[in-house]
Amino acid sequence: MPISIKDLPKEKLFLPGNASCPGCPEALGLKYLTMALGRKLMIVIPAGCTSIIQGLAPGGAFVFPTLNVPFASSDAVAAGLAAAKKILGEDAVVVAWGGDGGTADIGFATLSGAAERNDNVIHICVDNEAYMNTGIQRSSLTPFGAWTTTTWRGKRERKKELSLIMLMHKIPYVATASVGYPLDFIEKVRKAASIKGFKFIHLHAPCPVGWRFDPAKTVHVAKLAVETGMWILFEAENGKLRISPPSKPYADKSKRKPIKEYIRLQGRFRTLRDEDISILEKMVDDAWETILRLAER
Ligand SMILES: Cc1ncc(C[n+]2csc(CCOP(=O)(O)OP(=O)(O)O)c2C)c(N)n1
Ligand code: SF4
User: Fold this and answer.
1) pLDDT digits (tens, 9 = 90+) for 212-230
2) Whether pTM exceeds 0.90
3) Do the domain assignments include residue 271?
4) Euclidean distance between the first and final Cα of the chain, in Å?
């Protein structure tokens, strides 16, 4: 059932006055996560911007149980926690919340293992497309053409298709989401919480610091990613894939905004040449073709 803003809880479980930068997408995502799960939320976080946001606030910024863990263990720890809660008969939703580095690179083996065992955990990858916390290094989820401090002429490799890799693990629920569409994200988190087994949500999180844009424009950039077709919102329950409402119009290529509108707002794409933009456009078309084929099945 679609959620309305007035139905969301008013209680603040993620406190203001924390150490996030202005316009931080991880802070937005965390706020929506607490609105989705309320006091049932237990979170497991490896190193990354979120652990700084949590820890540097006086007394801590999170009013819910939090476990800080080494990168390569998040989903294993989360699975143990979920099993312990079940034995104790306590009602909790365990979320492993990792950055793109902590999920797609350093934490990938544990993520894949927990998915294969179908452990009762939600993994949310908050994807700001680089290792931001340590100074904007490239990850396997940095897109083609983007500047980072380790790809200073623009990354030449493509972004890993992480959500499709997770779909191929045949887990009960896989979804993509965006901090630009909070109600869609909250609905997906709640749906994931209602399903037993391993669930994966890939949350697109434009970062003003690492992507070099005005911090007032985080939501605008996030929405443009969807409107240009660069980020496709979908969900797959037991392998049955559906395009989510905010992305539906853009299945029709003629409705998509030109990707230049998305790119020109971000300093990280300043070095892109015209031929690189054509490569990116082709990647967008290919990604849509793959998703639409999966949706037809
Ligand atoms: C095993 C290990 N390697 C490297 C580090 C250093 N480190 C801490 S945070 C971080 C970057 C995390 O990037 P990401 O997961 O994308 O999260 P973000 O900072 O962007 O939120 C790294 C490399 C570490 N803590 N542990
Ligand atoms: S670097 Fe980006 S993701 Fe990290 S705290 Fe700052 S705005 Fe948030």
Assistant:
1) 999 999 999 999 999 999 9
2) yes
3) yes
4) 24
